[in-house]
Amino acid sequence: MSDKFVTVEFTLPEFWAPALINGDTSGLEAEEIKQIDAFMAANADAQTFNVTCDAEEEPSFHHNHDASFYGVLACSCRTYQFTQRVSDEEMSDDAETAETGPVQVHIQTFDVWGNAEDGYNVNDTFSYGTFECSSEDDLCGDTVGFLNEHFFKSVVSADKLEIRIEDNGDYLDIEVNEAEDGKPICQLTVER
Questions:
Q1: Is residue 180 part of a domain?
Q2: Buried-most residue among 49, 66, 87, 167 (CB within 10 A)?
Q3: What's the number of domains the chain is made of?
Q4: Of residues 101, 109, 177, 92, the one with CA closest to residue 132
Q5: Nearest Cα residue to 177 out of 149, 147, 155
Q6: Which of 53, 87, 121 is the last residue in one of the domains?
Q7: What gap in Å lies between CA 65 and CA 10, rounded to an integer?
């Protein structure tokens, strides 16, 4: 049995680099350390053994990023690569699970520019996280319930959302917009 390596990218605060890459939290406030710990608990498991970022990459300012959910405000960010070890057995188990039942739902959030009058444009997308759902049918039948459980910080009623489901064979995409003005909120994707 051999191990495979999977790399996942996140857009995260530039000032997190010493903590993520070297485990150095000196210079960070207690609240900032809590935010990093919460992000790592939700997005990196024990098999994550390497976190890197391209030192040549210019940081860029982001209103929304992959740490926004954890209370981090708009800031200068970098793209970090999290490398995880995945055994053949785990990959095989994942393939069997995809065929028989639960599905992995990836949620992406958006950095949206514009307004209701002139229209909205998605400037950038961010990985919010991946969550399990019992089946595609359950996800499509109760998208709002799934989002209330895994995404929204408080319960949102179905009449506040506009949901579009697109099945292209390889992917199931669910676009979620505000019902009142069509502002994009997030996208859910199940890769088959």
A1: yes
A2: 66
A3: 2
A4: 101
A5: 147
A6: 87
A7: 8
The C-alpha atoms of residue 158 and residue 155 are separated, in whole angstroms, by 10
For residue 101, give the 3-state DSSP assignment: coil
Domain that includes residue 31, residue range: 3-87
118 contacts 112 by C-beta, under 8 angstroms: no
- pTM (2 d.p.): 0.50
* d(C-alpha 120, C-alpha 115), whole Å: 6
Answer yes or no: are the C-beta atoms of 107 and 91 closer than 8 Å.
no
Domain boundary at 30, 59, 87, which? Answer: 87
E strand map for the chain: 3-13, 48-53, 60-62, 75-87, 103-115, 119-133, 161-167, 171-178, 184-191
Identify the H or E element spanning 43: helix 30-43
Average pLDDT, consecutive stretches of 10 residues, N- to C-terminus, the chain (192 residues): 72 94 92 91 71 87 87 92 72 48 88 91 89 85 86 82 85 89 92 82
Q: List residues bridging with 81 in a β-sheet.
A: 9, 52
Contact 182, 120 (CB under 8 A): yes
Q: Are 192 and 174 in contact (CB under 8 A)?
A: no
Structure-token pair, residue 115: 């307004």
